[in-house]
Structures are given as structure tokens and as C-alpha cells.
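C-alpha cells for chain A. Residues wanted.
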């Protein structure tokens, strides 16, 4: 039996119940609870995140989509994987500090970010890639002027486990959760818009967006928000955040820039 290193405190406080494997990868697995909530179990190299458990392992055993198990106060049990969760460190993200300025955030994301998502890749593109890039650019430009249009353009746009457009929306939602930010007054509208996206994009994206607008995101992204008033810390925080996924970290930060710039 393996140990869970840390877990979202909300998950540790949740009542016990059944689990079903939604999707499984080399270093993570997504599990569905009995009430339809998506829970992630990740390798130790991942950072803390909403509704997530970090396990003391590098790679996961083979898990089959549809396999069933359970989670209680002591253990998470799945075929081929048992985690002791009772000793996990509870993750409780700190409240977001009031906004005082974005500093060099936009310039750093442009400089350090990975291209191919919200930051277009250089060079000539095929017609499909160009259409996606144009849609992302139009959606990002509309975020603060026409939210309904922006959500229509961005939701589900892109490839991967969480499409670039979804990550941009999540980053923008986090910006709205920051007290006194330029888009903080939009927070309730964003929350309602994100709740209405069920069925229009991936379940993992929906969790990411709905948590972000509550001020809850992957710890590396929260570290960027925390570092905004401290120029000496901001570059290192951005450099760590853009390592998330292929372009997911960059795309999340592009949404944050759109809301704070």
C-alpha cells in the first residue's frame, strides 16, 4: 500500500463513497465519485490542486477506464492501487491577496510561455491550426468586452486534455476571484457562465474553470498570483507555472493576464 502525500482538504472532508476510473495516464488518473464529481490522483511530481490527491509514486499502475473502487477516511482503493489517505497533508490554498498591479506578468508570459496554444506558434500554419489560433485570439480579445461571445469562442477550443480555450477561461476566472482586480465585478457572471458549459467541453475543464472562479487553482498558478507584488519572485513563479502540461500552464496564465492587464 502506498501513501498519499497531500490532498485537497475538501476531498479529505468529503463523505466516503464509490469511485469509477474516468481516464488514466502514466502519471495521473481521473476518478468519478458517486455524485459525478471528478477527482484527480497524481504522481508526487505534480503540485497540489483542487479535488486532487498526490500519491507517493512516479508512475501509475495500469488502470482501466470504468474500473470501480472506493474512497473513505483511511484509504483510496482501486484494482491494482491502494493509497493510505489518512496521513495525507491537507491542502488549503491561502486566500488571494487584493490586487495591486500585474507588474511584468504579461511580458514574462510572452517571454517564457510555451507556444502552440493561447500563444500562437511562429511560422506558417495549416488551415485548421490557423482557424484555432484565430478563434483563440478573438476570444481572448473579447473577454472584457463581450463575455458571452468570449465564452462561445473559447470553450472547447484547442486540443488536449484541457483545450487551450478552456484554460484561458480558467485563468480569467482566477483573475476575477482576486479581490479588487479589474474583472472582480464579473465574478458572479463568470461563475454562472462556467456552470452552463456542462456538455460543451471536457469534465476536467469544467472542474478547473469552476474552481478557479472560487480562487482555487493548481498551486503553481496560485504562486504566480501571490508573487504579483514581488518582482523578485514573479519570474521564477511564471517559469514554474508554464511547465504545466504541454501549453496548459501558459494558457492559464494568458487568461490571468487578460483579466489583470
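Reply:
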Amino acid at each position: 500500500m502506498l501513501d498519499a502525500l497531500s490532498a485537497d482538504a475538501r476531498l479529505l472532508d468529503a463523505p466516503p463513497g464509490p469511485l469509477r476510473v474516468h481516464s488514466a495516464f502514466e502519471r495521473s488518473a481521473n476518478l468519478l465519485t458517486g455524485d459525478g464529481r471528478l477527482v484527480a490522483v497524481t504522481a508526487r511530481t505534480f503540485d497540489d490542486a483542487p479535488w486532487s490527491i498526490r500519491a507517493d509514486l512516479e508512475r501509475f499502475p495500469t488502470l482501466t477506464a470504468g474500473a470501480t473502487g472506493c474512497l473513505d477516511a483511511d484509504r483510496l482503493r482501486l484494482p491494482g492501487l491502494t493509497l493510505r489517505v489518512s496521513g495525507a497533508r491537507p491542502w488549503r490554498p491561502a486566500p488571494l491577496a487584493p490586487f495591486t498591479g500585474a507588474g511584468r506578468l504579461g511580458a514574462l508570459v510572452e517571454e517564457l510561455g510555451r507556444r502552440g496554444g493561447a500563444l500562437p506558434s511562429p511560422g506558417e500554419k495549416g488551415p485548421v491550426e490557423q482557424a484555432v489560433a484565430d478563434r483563440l485570439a478573438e476570444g481572448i480579445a473579447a473577454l472584457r468586452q463581450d463575455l458571452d461571445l468570449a465564452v462561445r469562442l473559447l470553450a472547447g477550443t484547442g486540443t488536449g486534455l484541457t483545450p487551450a480555450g478552456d484554460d484561458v477561461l480558467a485563468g480569467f476566472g482566477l483573475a476575477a476571484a482576486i479581490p479588487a482586480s479589474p474583472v472582480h465585478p464579473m465574478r458572479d457572471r463568470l461563475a454562472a457562465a462556467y456552470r452552463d458549459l456542462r456538455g460543451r467541453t471536457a469534465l476536467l475543464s469544467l472542474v478547473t474553470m469552476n474552481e478557479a472562479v472560487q480562487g482555487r487553482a493548481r498551486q503553481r498558478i496560485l504562486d504566480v498570483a501571490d508573487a504579483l507584488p514581488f518582482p523578485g519572485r514573479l519570474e521564477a513563479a511564471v517559469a514554474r507555472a508554464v511547465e504545466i502540461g504541454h501549453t496548459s500552464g501558459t494558457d492559464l496564465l494568458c487568461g490571468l493576464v487578460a483579466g489583470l492587464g
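The two ends are 47 Å apart (CA to CA). The longest helix spans residues 127-142.
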